[in-house]
Amino acid sequence: MSDSNVLHDTPAEFLRDIAQQPGRCTAQSVIPLDDGTYACACSCETWEVIAPSRQEGLQLARRHTGSI
Fold this sequence. Notes:
By secondary structure, the chain is of the alpha+beta class. The chain has a domain at 23-68. It is built from two helices and three strands; from the N terminus they run H-E-E-E-H. It has helices at residues 11-20, 54-65, and strands at 28-32, 38-42, 48-51. The radius of gyration is 13 Å and the shape is globular. The protein starts with 10 loop residues before the first helix and ends with a helix. The mean pLDDT is 88.
């Protein structure tokens, strides 16, 4: 793993950065639901979807942020 992939912030610093940048795509989440699907959302608060799998949720998050 290269240094560019290492998270250097503490969790508190990470959450503070999100709170200080409202409307920006600072963080995305892919959270499992009881029915086997995944709730996907972004800190920009304008993107939220349900994905059929974790992999699809991650792919959708990458598309949302333009990282692919």
